[in-house]
Amino acid sequence: MPANTIVDIGYNGVSVDEIAEQFEVSPGCVEAILDYAKSHRTNAGPNVLEDFLSRHPFAVAYRVSGDGLRSASTGTETVRHNEFSSMSVAAPKLTRDAFREMYAQRKPHFELLDGAAVQKSLPARLHSILQFVLSVMLKELGFKSRPELTLAIDETWEPTPDVCGVLGPEEDPYPTRAVAVAIEVLSLDDRFTRVIQKCRQYAAWGIQDILVYDPVSREVWYWDAVTGGLIESKETYRFRSQPVEIFHNEVFRRLEDELRP
Fold it and tell me: Which end of the chain is flanked by fewer CB atoms within 10 Å, N or C?
């Protein structure tokens, strides 16, 4: 089956999962090709996939042929396409510009984490309410409270903490220097290893106060610079960026108030 058939059948309403199953490639690969085609294809010509591969180095290493994967440089078959899903290919990291071009209009939103596009979890009711409560309380503590503020501090990172606390002058449209506070609110399908990855990067940038709240278990963690990891915060957390503290029982009391009908 010709590679450009991915684009053609995608335009004809076949789902990403069905295309991925038919070609035995990952849904992410199919989505990336179709997204690029939608934004760059001006006619029904067959060259959109070649254009995509030429512009995006993470996809150039291999091209999908009718019966296998062929090396982009030699054209020789390297592995059967039914082995594609288990093959690991070292790929260059996405830059901010490439990430924004490919994912800026996607919903649910994506984050750029160490050069990889990662879809954010869909915020459920508990997550949304706790995010609101924390935003209000940060403002009461003297921070400029900024929910869902994208951080553009590194070329291959563009995370969006659930709530940021800012002190001093702000940058527009995105902070390119460390903010004072970054808070993550866990969702049901969040991978904790991914949360730790984000927190570690926040710390590397110099964000002084990094907190993680779980609205289900009512647990709280903070990033400890000495151990380089998350430590459970029992009753209260004293901020390092300014001399104030947040009481977790008050956070969850307000959450319960908001949950009442």
Answer: C
Structure tokens at 190: 């969040």
pLDDT tens profile 152-172 = 999 999 999 999 999 999 999
DSSP letter, residue 240: S
Looking at residue 56, the DSSP 8-state letter turns out to be: -
Same domain, 88 and 132: no
Q: Quick one: which of 232, 235, 234 has its CA closest to 222?
A: 232
Nearest Cα residue to 216 out of 118, 103, 105, 125? 125
Which residues form the domain of 44?
A: 5-92
145 and 207 share one domain: yes
Q: What is the pLDDT of residue 85?
A: 37
For the entire predicted model, the pTM comes to 0.67
Q: Which two tokens stand for residue 240?
A: 């390092």
One domain, residues 146 and 85 = no
Q: Is 164 in contact with 182 (CB distance < 8 Å)?
A: yes
Contact present, 224 and 230 (Cβ < 8 Å) = yes
Is 196 domain-assigned?
yes
Q: For the chain, what is the mean pLDDT?
A: 80
Instruction: Say yes or no to pLDDT of 81 above 90.
Output: no
Does residue 86 sit in the same domain as residue 139?
no
Distance separating alpha carbons of residues 173 and 188, to the nearest angstrom: 30
Answer yes or no: do 177 and 232 share one domain: yes
* Structure token digits, residue 223: 């990033």
Q: Are 62 and 85 in contact (CB under 8 A)?
A: no
Count of structural domains, the chain:
2
Q: Quick one: pLDDT band at residue 108, thresholds 50, 70, 90? A: confident
The confidence band for 190, taking pLDDT boundaries of 50, 70 and 90, is confident
Query: CA–CA separation, 108 vs 1, rounded Å?
Result: 31
